[in-house]
Amino acid sequence: MCDFSGRLIAWMDRELLEREREEIQRHLAGCPECREQLAAYEKASRAFDAYCEAVFTEETRHKALRWRSVAGFAAGIAATAAIAVLLTLPTTRTAPVQGVTPPEAMENAAARTTDPPRVPTQLDVAVEAAHTPAIQLKRAPRQYIATPLRTRTEKGVPRQRLPQVQIQTLTSFPIEPSIEIAIPGDAVFPPGAVPPGMSFTADLTISADGLPEQLGLRPRFAAFERTNQP
Amino acid sequence: MSGESVRLARPLTRLATDAYETTTLYHDLRKPLARYLICLGLSADEAQDVVQDAFVSLHRHLAVGGSHGNIRSWLFRVAHNAARNQQKKYERRFSATLGAELDSIVHEATPEHVLLEKEKLQRLRGAVRLLTEPERECLLLRAGGLRYREISEVLGIAISTVGDTVERAIKKLAEKCDV
């Protein structure tokens, strides 16, 4: 046993500082005992790695580890991406009083969540009219419902209708999900640059290897579409 | 105007960059993560769930401006803690699973392989059982390509402790493999 034997494993793992590394390198050249030890450590290390791989292969072989991968993970991204968009929008309105949730909005949100899933081969994340500074998130399994908080108004004055936000994910994921996010135009462009009531649909395609492939904005008149909603 | 695509504004492109980063990481790290969890004794399904959850957490972490520094150990830590929460389950299964699996690997190998591999794997199985839990965890993380610094972050122990533990574990294995 020489003085260097205690540092051979750290050396093998490249965890030593350069000076020490060179020192050991020089020592190894002239010390057969250490070289032999090092060879044994390397063998043990490789054996353990092979052993891990064997355990992994065996456990996953029969199960055919199906990565919900792209699809499932993309759903996670979709939901978080949509939420993050909402939260990073510039806020020009005064912050509403916290804790007031319009009953009709909740009803509306609840009614929509019971809608039958649309085309099952499509992952839909629909966020409507996102320009609101305070959003309340309720979590349900695989479903996110965000209801904007309403500004408290004086008695007798009709309440201003604030947009609702809803993010919906389907439980069966396609190979190439398409995500739809609607954003009011004045949240993205300078004030006055887009006509009131116009929003944009952002198309984001995630390819089979999990990378976002296509990004684009399609303008649409949110006000017109909203009146079509029951 | 409708139907035409126009260039995206900044917030979404930033998000797309994050998504790109996360999906690339997912591609590179899902297997090492799953392998780590399975070697800890989780089933393939459990491991897959933990990995998915870890990546969704990572995406949230990045989306709210979380640190981009050392994401690999961040992910392993999240996965490790999730596995810890099932500790009872995996402690019970660890030895049983490994034993059963190795036997079936051995059975399905080619005849020439059998003699060599069987002996080798049996010895290894015995040696791995002799490792303490921290030793096993350190070696498993090391096998996943983590540096000592990252291992120390995942397990919440000092780097010097990681070095000592790895050394002890490797020496134990080397001794057993050599017999």
Structure notes:
The complex is a heterodimer of chains A (230) and B (179). Chain A is an alpha+beta fold and 230 residues long. Chain A contains seven helices and six strands; from the N terminus they run H-H-H-H-H-E-E-E-E-H-E-E-H. Chain A has a three-stranded antiparallel sheet with strand order 1-2-3, with helices on both faces. A three-stranded antiparallel sheet of chain A has the order 4-5-6. The longest helix of chain A has 32 residues, at 32-63. Chain A starts with 7 loop residues before the first helix and ends with a helix. Chain B has helices at residues 10-40, 44-63, 71-85, 87-108, 111-130, 133-143, 148-155, 159-178. Chain B contains eight helices and no strands. Chain B has 179 residues and is an all-alpha fold. The relative contact order of chain B is 0.10. The model of chain B is unreliable at 1-13 (pLDDT under 50). Chain B has a domain at 10-85: Rna Polymerase Sigma Factor, Chain: A (Orthogonal Bundle), CATH 1.10.1740. The interface between A and B is large, with 58 and 64 residues.
Strand composition percent of chain B: under 5%
Mean pLDDT value of chain A: 57
Total DSSP E strands of chain B: 0
| Biggest sheet details of chain A | 3 strands, antiparallel
Helix tally of chain B? 8
CATH topology of one domain in chain B: Rna Polymerase Sigma Factor, Chain: A
**Major interchain interface with per-chain residue totals:** A-B, 58 and 64 residues
Total count of helical runs of at least 4 residues of chain A: 7
- H/E element sequence of chain B: HHHHHHHH
* Helix content estimate of chain A: 25-40%
Please describe the biggest sheet of chain B, giving its number of strands, its sense, and whether it closes into a barrel. Answer: none
Average pLDDT of chain B works out at 76
SS class of chain B: mainly alpha
How many whole angstroms does the radius of gyration of chain B measure?
Answer: 20 Å
